[in-house]
Amino acid sequence: MFGHEGARTARLMIYLLLALALMAMDQRGHYVPRLRSALGTALEPVFHVVEWPANALRAVRTYTTSYRTMLEENRSLNEEILVRDGAAQQLETLRQENRRLRALLEATAGREYEFRFAEMVQVNLDPFSHQVIIDRGGRDGVFVGQAVIDGAGIMGQVEEVHLHMSGVRLISDPDHALPVQLTRTGLRTVAFGTGETSRLALPNVPLQADVRSGDLLVTSGLGDRFPAGFPVAEVESVRRDPGGMFAEVEARPLAALDRGREVLLVLPAGPADRAEETPDATAEPEGQP
Hints:
Layout: H1 2-29, H2 31-108, E1 113-126, E2 129-134, E3 147-149, E4 154-161, E5 166-170, E6 177-182, E7 188-193, E8 200-206, E9 216-219, E10 231-239, E11 246-253, E12 262-268, H3 272-275
Antiparallel strand pairs: 1-2, 1-12, 2-5, 3-4, 3-12, 4-5, 6-7, 6-9, 7-8, 8-11, 9-10, 10-11
């Protein structure tokens, strides 16, 4: 026991003597700061190695935070772009609708007719039946045989009337025939639907008739099927077979038969007697030849 205590005392004395010696050396030569600096320089790589995991963790956290921030900013920008694109599309749609409505208004200027606005609610462009449904019916004064136009020209004719809606046969329907007249020469003929919204056929034009590409066709008013003078189509092609009796004439409808939504119902001025009639939903359409 006493041996252990003696050894401890001896070590303590040695440490004290070393401390006194270092203090004396520091007082005379200032060796301790130099030694501390040397030790710090030698241990600097160790400090870097010890701090590397913490620095790496901080870097990962910073990168993750920045990445999430960028993702949120990107998502926000994409949403803003989508909203603006949607607003721009809606604005363009409104502009197109305004142009169509302006064209409808211009189509009624200077004509001795009354017009009622309507909208298409259903379209059937089957090759064998070109028909549309409009949101006006018997209670609105719609009647079988009534002409329907858009801002550019004749679209078709009412063939079926219900209380709140009506069916309209387009002039492109294969079973539809429309009496027309060339404005340049006054030639009268009939335009037939072909089942294509971009083409009408005029099969009864005499071979030697003066018909040219670009001629304007309007309603002739014959047969009381359509009011006279409304634009119908423009002649696109004329083919003459010397061995035949008739020229092969095709025309392009001016009305947007496969586009648009707004239409006008044509009604002669002062139609009180016609409007008060009870619509016959089962009557045959007057657009038949």
